[in-house]
Each structure stands twice: as structure tokens, then as C-alpha cells.
Amino acid sequence: MRIEKNVPDKYITAYQGGIAVGKSDMIAFPESTEDVQEIVRRANEEDAKIVPIGSQTGLAKASYPNNGSWLISTNEMNKILSFDEETLTLNVQAGVLLQDVIDYLADTDYFYAPDPGMKRATIGGNASTNAGGMRAVRYGVTRDNIRGFDVVLANGEAIHCGSLNNKDASGYDLKDLFIGAEGTLGIITELQLKVIPRPRYEKSILIGYNNVTESAPTVGSVLKSTLHPVAIELLEANGVKLAEEYVGEKVPEIAGGAQILVTLAGNSTDDIDHQIDELLSIATANNAIGHKVLEDEEHIRTWKVRDNILTGIDAAGTWKMYDPCVPTNHFTDLVAEAKKLGEELHMDSAFFGHAGDGNIHICVLQHDYSNEEWKELLLKYEDRLYDMIRDFGGLPSAEHAIGREKKPYFKRFHNQAYFDVLLAVKHALDPKNMLNPGVTYTDD
Fold it and tell me: Reduced to 3 states, what is the DSSP secondary structure of residue 221?
């Protein structure tokens, strides 16, 4: 295990905004669960705090050290250990990238269903935030696709959560407790991922509407139909434009100021054709003013643009993203109201998101505002945005987690008794508040 006392700047610099947000006295690069146990036990002996990190692509500032905390990086825990075709389980270390998993399974009949946009995020990081992605509407989020994992606790002991069994009524569900906990309860080291058979055919359809609000009835009707789309994505003009400029590709043109991108899957062309007919019948009855069934090359090109919306926004300048979720019937309501709020405050914005599960990504861009003006604007925007999300019955994060970014607003969504329970869990598993202090609902 490699340990460095002089921590390079890249490990304490935020992905979002490129600002140094931490200070660390040491960084360790374990290669195994046993190495992680060793460093956690040493931290206990020296009363040090620990922040586990992966590839640091998170957007909530959860993986940056406070007050000299030690960093434990999973960069060298990057091995795909085995693939068990009998149980359809892929065994990986926590530092394996999502792209590594995609590439490993590319020539097989199977795939790992979660599809977050950031493919160079680690699987351990995906588990720590319960990442979702484009295919969540059909296949669920990260927690739905993990069979089990090894996790090192705050006292240095290691346990295994979950199993290869398809059912489990054997006591508390510790697996789901650690998933989404942002490294505040334990450090996940090895994971058993569920893989599934790959559909033989996929087809994507772009459907156009006059505006975002008019797309809502189609989304609602599809979710209530017998269709089971792989993805239902909102494409809003500003975000698409920035992505097209970045990748040098164009989404096929169809009528309307807003589009939804729907991907269908099946095991025969007849099945796909039947699904397309049903989808277009629903869309035609619900405000659609144009559509295009994408050919293979158009499908690849359009999804390339969709996957690079955030990258395009990043290339355009300083930005900040929010990832709220609301009940699906309020998805377009939130988009419309958040757009109005941005216009009222004279803030440029770009929207995209997972219309099928109510998760909208809201990006605001700094442009010509000074840093001081930008900070003041963000505070005004966030104060009203999070109240708006709450009033629509939503939550502050769908897949990027709370981190430190959303912590000041988190308490608007639950009563004190709820947070007392969360803190009781934290104190039981980490009584010294050693793991990722100051993140999400934990003590500072």
C-alpha cells in the first residue's frame, strides 16, 4: 500500500468549478480490503478523520477532506476480479470505473444496467451516492443492481452485506443502509454486481413538443401503459446546443422547442415495431407535434449528444448543477418554474434529465457575473429553488447525494425526528465521527 504525506492538489480540488476545497495530511492508496482495514485502524489509533475517494467526479463536494483528514483513494483497487455466469454476478473492486465494466461486458450477451452519464466514475462512488442514470426508469438505480459488497467499518472490522440469493428476509437490510451513505458509515471495498441479458434490439425515438410543459401528458401516459421503455429523457434546447458544440455532432431536427428521447428494447423486430406504434399513438394523442424514429447511426449520435450535455455545459464556463427529484407528474412543473426563476434572476440555465423517474438536472451558468455577484445570485436561487422542490413533494437529490453542497437545505425536507434517527445510525456505526465528517446529515 502506497502512502503519501504530501497530497497532490488534484485530490483536494472540486470537479465542479475546479476550486480547492480541502486540506489533507495524508493520502493512502490501498490495494485490498485488508489494506483499507489497516489504514482505518491506524486512523483510530491516531484520532484521525478519513475521507474515502474514488475518481472524484461527484457534484456535491462529499469527497474532499476537512481540517487535515486522511484520504483513502480506491484508485489502485481497480481490478475486475471475476464473472460468474451461473449467478450473473460480476465481482469488482470499488475503484473499477463504470466504463471499465461497460467495456468488459461489451462482447458478452450481458450488461450492467445502471447508466449514469459520468462513465469515469467508480463503481464504489456510484454505490456511495446510489447513482441512477438514463436506464433507471426500467432497471432501477445502483442499489437495485448490487447483490452484495464488502465494507470496512469505522473500527476497522470488515463485514459482507447482501448475498447471491434473490430473496432475503434475514434481519435488517444492511446492504441498502450503506448504499447512498456517501462513505459516512463504512468504506465499500469489493462489490458483486448484478448483470442481465442484453436485449437483442434497441430503438430510439425523438418526439417534439411546443414546450417542456406539453411533453408531460406523454410521459405520464407512457408510464401508465404496458410499455417498459429503457429511457425517457428530456432534451431542452440550451443543454443540447452546448453538447452539440462540444462533440461536433447534431441531434436530428424535428419540430418543437422541446423533445423527449425514448429508447425501447425488445427481442424481435416485431416486438420493437409494436412498441413504437403504441408509443407514437400515445404521443400523437398528447400534444406531440413531430417525431422521428432514429436509424442506428442517428441513435448513436443522439445518445452521444445526450451523454455529453454536462460536458458541454462545463466547456461553456463556470456552472453549478442541481439534481432534485419530484413525483413524475410534477417533472415538467418543476422545469417550467425553475426556468422562470432563472429568468427572473437573470441567470442563464440549461436543463436535462430523466423524465421517466422525475429526476431533473438543472444547470445555471455564471457567464459575465463577478464571483461575488455569482455567489449572491446562487444563494437567492437556491433559497427559492429548494422550497419549490419541497412544495412539489420532491427531494433535494435524486442521484448525486447531499454531500456538503446540499446540507444547508436538507433539513427543509424532513422533521427533526427524522434527522435524530439518521444521527442515531451514524453514532452507532461511527461513534467517533471518523468517516467523512461534515457530509450529508453527519456532525461537523
Answer: helix
CA distances from 255 to 206, 210, 211, 290 (A): 10, 8, 11, 5
**Dihedral pair phi/psi, residue 102, rounded to 5°:** -60, -45
What percent of the chain lies above the pLDDT cut of 70? 98
Find out whether 94 and 190 touch, Cβ atoms under 8 Å.
yes
- Residue 225's SS3 state is coil
At residue 301, φ and ψ (nearest 5 deg) are -65, -45
What is the rounded CA–CA span in Å between residue 436 and residue 69?
Answer: 9
HSE-CB for 89 with a 13 A CA cutoff: 17
Contacts of 306 (CB under 8 A, 6+ apart): 134, 233, 235, 243, 261, 352
Q: Report the alpha-carbon distance of residue 321 to residue 270 in Å, rounded.
A: 41
How sure is the predictor about 89, in pLDDT bands with cuts at 50, 70 and 90?
Answer: very high
Whole-angstrom distance, CA of residue 3 vs CA of residue 149: 25
Residues paired with 8 in a beta bridge: none
Which cell is 71 given?
A: 484520504
pLDDT the model gives residue 18: 63
* Cα gap 139→142, rounded to integer Å: 9
Q: What is residue 109's three-state secondary structure?
A: coil
> In 256-279, which positions are buried (b, 16+ CB within 10 angstroms) versus exposed (e)?
bebbbbbbbbbeeeeebeebbeeb
For residue 444, pLDDT over 60 is answered with: no
Provide mean pLDDT across the span 102-119: 96
Helix residue spans in 285-401 (DSSP H): 296-307, 309-315, 331-344, 371-391
3-state helix/strand/coil string of 144-201: HHEEEEEEECCCCCEEEEECCCCCCCCCCCHHHHHCCCCCCCCEEEEEEEECEECCCE
Task: Note the residue count of the chain.
Answer: 444
